[in-house]
Amino acid sequence: MKGEAGSQLQDEKPKQEGHIWGSMRRTAFILGSGLLLFVAFWNSVTWHLQRFWGASGYFWQAQWERLLFTFEGKEWILFMIGAIYLPALSFWTFNGLLLVVDTTGKPNCISRYRIQVGKNEPVDPVKLRQSIRTVLFNQLLISQPMVVFLYPILKLWRDPCRRDLPTFHWCLLELAVFTLIEEVMFYYSHRLLHHPIFYKKIHKKHHEWTAPIGVISVYAHPIEHVVSNMLPAMVGPIVMGSHLSSIIVWFSLTLIVTTISHCGYHLPFLPSPEFHDYHHLKFNQCYGVLGVLDHLHGTDTVFKQTKAYERHTLLLGFTPLSESIPDTPKME
């Protein structure tokens, strides 16, 4: 018996090594193909965008210099307005529209795209008010002071309010670096918060919403808000010594994207929120933003076996994916 077991183990080892080697080759092929396609389209796409950027660049540079003249000697005020209040305005404008649908169920042209049908129809007003209070606390008493401290940190590297606006290609590079840093930091900090030591006292607060809505994207314990929400977004601009204009775009973009991920509606022509919505539903899958690290660590294997995974795509029509790809009926 021992001899048979030993021979089986010896047979299994080459198979496992072959499987790993095969996975590595497939990964290299996918990444290599993607890189070639990216290089092929890079020059043509960016050429057109660069022409637009160049044509409008003189206008924006002139407006920026006018702002610098207005806030001369008080550039920190300009930084606060751009890095705090403009992203906050984009967040509350978008979420204000979503809250109308969340609280009234109307208009039907939006509510029909609800992912978890039958939940939050309408949203619990008491729970919503309590969540909004927490969101405002996080934004005013945590996010705002952190961004205030961000200004002198950035000045040690490069002045974020320097005269010259960044070029188009530099902005693209910055956004790529920001996204990569955020993916890594958010994934690992998020997984850490799911450890039993931290989950009950910290992260469980965010998971009170098993069917999320947009505004609860920053509904979290203060520690989580610092570690998983703010730092992953702030480290990129520090590393790159970014201009205020890049920071405004990045902070606004992160707030809009996290709102879409939590909104509970798979709307046409917007990024799919199915990935993170499934995380709120099941808790132990889909920890990241892009899904790259989930794929590498195997924390999306269950998700990939669901109808939600089939729906996790950009909706290019107007038929809700919950209708075209409905969940499998439960066995009675």
Give a brief rundown of this model.
The chain is an all-alpha fold and 332 residues long. Helix content is 69%, strand content 0%.
Strand content: under 5%
Average pLDDT, rounded to a whole number, is 88
**Quaternary class:** single chain
Q: Rg from C-alpha positions? A: 23 Å
Low-confidence stretches: 1-20
The level of helicity is: 55-70%
Structural class: mainly alpha
Please outline the major beta sheet. none
Topology as a string of helices (H) and strands (E): HHHHHHHHHHHH
Basic shape: globular
Kindly describe this structure.
- It is globular and about 70 Å long.
- The N terminus is likely disordered.
- The protein has 12 helices and no strands.
- 69% of the residues lie in helices and 0% in strands.
- Helix 2 packs antiparallel against helix 4, helix 2 packs parallel to helix 8 and helix 4 runs parallel beside helix 7.
- The longest helix is centred in the first third of the chain and has 69 residues.
- With 332 residues, the chain is an all-alpha fold.
Task: Itemize the secondary structure elements and their pairings.
Elements: H1 2-70, H2 75-104, H3 108-111, H4 125-157, H5 168-193, H6 196-199, H7 222-240, H8 244-262, H9 274-282, H10 292-297, H11 307-311, H12 321-324
Entry keywords:
0% strand, disordered N terminus, 332 residues, mainly alpha, single chain
